[in-house]
């Protein structure tokens, strides 16, 4: 079995922009990132959430998704440029990326009310979950300094991680291609 930790060079700072040194160059920072690896059982969680139609009537429970492929997309913050681009791509390419019978959830530190406004503003058809204390993000190695890092997991029908991308590129077509292939393989 692989070691449960990986050292990744990621940008620290604001939700979608790296900090800049006086020289004008981005300042990379190293983080030790842990989270479930492919083949491991996905950590269980329950969170409040919303869709563009309003708050969910009951908390989202990952355990209830057993038997379905589930995509979990951690992201920094509602209404930011990179996050908006990511979820607009999910919206526009959802039929191709995910297909029928796949549960797609986004998770950030934002409140349920913020999620409703964000989903309505971009016509986002999927579930957005509120993890304001980053409890779930920590389980998945996605917690940053005050926001979630952009990571994506595909959970198979058996409840195990089928795919993970700990540096999902919201503007990278290859990231979406890899996600599409992972979802297809998990089906």
Characterization of the model:
The longest helix has 17 residues, at about 80-95. The protein has about 190 residues and is α+β, with helices and mostly antiparallel strands. The chain has a seven-stranded mixed β-sheet, covered by helices on one side. A two-stranded antiparallel sheet has the order 1-2. The chain has a two-stranded antiparallel sheet with strand order 3-6. The chain has a single domain (about 40-185), classed as Glutaredoxin. The protein has helices spanning about 80-95, 110-120, 135-140, 175-185; strands at about 5-10, 30-35, 45, 50, 55, 60, 70-75, 100-110, 125-130, 150-155, 160-165. A hairpin with a 5-residue loop joins strand 10 and strand 11 (about 160-165).
Key features of this structure:
globular, 187 residues, two-stranded antiparallel sheet, disordered N terminus, 4 helices, Glutaredoxin, alpha+beta, 7-stranded mixed sheet
Order of strands across the biggest sheet?
5-4-9-8-7-10-11
Mean of pLDDT: 85
Overall 3D shape: globular
Number of strands: 11
Q: Which bin fits the share of residues in helices? A: 25-40%
Could you give the distance between the termini?
A: 24 Å
The CATH architecture assignment turns out to be 3-Layer(aba) Sandwich
Largest sheet: 7 strands, mixed
CATH class (first level) name: Alpha Beta
Low-confidence spans: pLDDT under 50, at least 5 residues? 1-21
- Could you tell me the strand content as a percent range? 25-35%
CATH topology: Glutaredoxin
Task: Calculate Rg over CA atoms.
Answer: 16 Å
SSE ordering: EEEEEEEHEHEHEEH
Q: What is the domain tally?
A: 1
Structural class: alpha+beta
CATH superfamily: Glutaredoxin
Total number of helices: 4
